[in-house]
What we know:
GO terms for molecular function: NADH dehydrogenase (quinone) (non-electrogenic) activity; NADH dehydrogenase (ubiquinone) activity; quinone binding. 78% of the residues lie in helices and 1% in strands. The protein is built from 21 helices and 2 strands. It has helices spanning 2-18, 23-39, 46-71, 87-110, 116-135, 139-159, 164-195, 203-211, 214-232, 240-247, 250-275, 281-305, 311-332, 338-365, 376-379, 381-395, 401-420, 423-443, 445-452, 467-484, 487-494, and strands spanning 76-78, 83-85. It has a two-stranded antiparallel ribbon with strand order 1-2.
Amino acid sequence: MFQPSxxxxxxxxxxxxxxxxxxxxxxxxxxxxxxxxISILKGEKKKQIGLCLSLLGLGIAGYxxxxxxxxxxxxxxxxxxxxxxxxxxxxxSLLITLFTVLLTIYAYxxxxxxxxxxxxxxxxAATLGMYAxxxxxxxxxxxxxxxxxxxxxxxxxxxxxxxxxxxEAAMKYALFGATCSAIMLYGIxxxxxxxxxxxxxxxxxxxxxxxxxxxxxxxxILFILIGFAFKLSMIPVHFWTPDVYQGAPTVVTAFIASxxxxxxxxxxFRWVEANAxxxxxxxxxxxxxxxxxxxxxxxxxxxxxxxxxxxxxxMAYSSIGHTGIIIMLILFTRDQHNSFFYYLTAYSIATxxxxxxxxxxxxxxxxxxxxxxxxxxxxxxxxxxxxTILLTSLAGIPPLMGFVGKxxxxxxxxxxxxxxxxxxxxxxLISGALTTVVSLFYYFKIPLYAFLKQGSGSQQxxxxxxxxxxxxxxxxxxxxxxxxxxQIVFNIYFK
Length: 495
């Protein structure tokens, strides 16, 4: 009778000892519940109250993360070794918080519907899931976190659908996501059957993989990768991406294209770091599967973007192409995370800025089509100059952040190739360079239409500056300054 109560006491002690280190998650949980309460109330100032509450919750969570970063110099394993608080989880959670604050403010000025409070709540819940993704070392925790982010994303897309196309996009997103989640969960169950544990960083897990069935382990790895591939829009589970990007409200598209990719990338990195660089057969399956996915995503994404006439669909395929670069970083990043941190920051700033520009132009022209930008460079010079700079950053042209980010990626890959002489690494390097050249053709299509094509003289376009204009200008300035002085980002990461 004494033994069970002793075990319960140990579990309770572990939980109580872990709670002080998840204060950011607790703050976001309370904020989410308060937003749900506000959503059922009536009043003209509900929108402003929701914004203030969301920003307050994110601000307090960010402050708690900053405090953890100041106090914590080593890693902490919480909740029976399922949750890791370390330098990686704290830094990337802070980055996620920063971009979520930006998107929350963007949503406030972009959407005027009564449903805005629900969007704030979903952004907070998704951020909570992304925090968990950055810290997870356990497959059950990982699956719960991915599903939290996924369900919030499905709701954001579907809740604001106004026509048949948007509803179809939301249904495709949810059904395709549910299928990929089921496949991933089956892969996790196969891994558990071979190892007897769900903690993918534990020695027992690694030993179980080494001693298990090669065929079963290979299937498990491939099935788990499908779950990550869906969230990162990798080929071949990318089919939802263009329709969802086009059909969702632009602020939701900006969110899906940027912030969740940071969290899922870190989670995938933790898995690769724990499992890939060992002497066992399964490490080759994982690494070469990622190489194939990276090559396919880079080539298919960039080539498909060439023929797009809709700006949001073009950015969807661009996002797929950038996923291939992110996988390269996951494969080649070692102890120093500065390249990884910098690239994700550069990508997210430029992507959010581009979608804000597309949103502003859609409000002015009533269209997402690129040919609706004919001649608008002369009528909206500030907007299109910023738009062009952000696109140029995504293309990787100096001296912007995107150029430095891609330079860091290729430098890391070249170091690995020099050390190993691996053909797949060389193939990734060549493909990354060639697809960067390909991307120039579709990124520069937009400034070409805006500045060098003649539009209809009768088209009346307001040049009134709004809060979203200001956001685009600020993001453009950051893209330039942090590209010319990248050490600012490195100093923030290492601080």
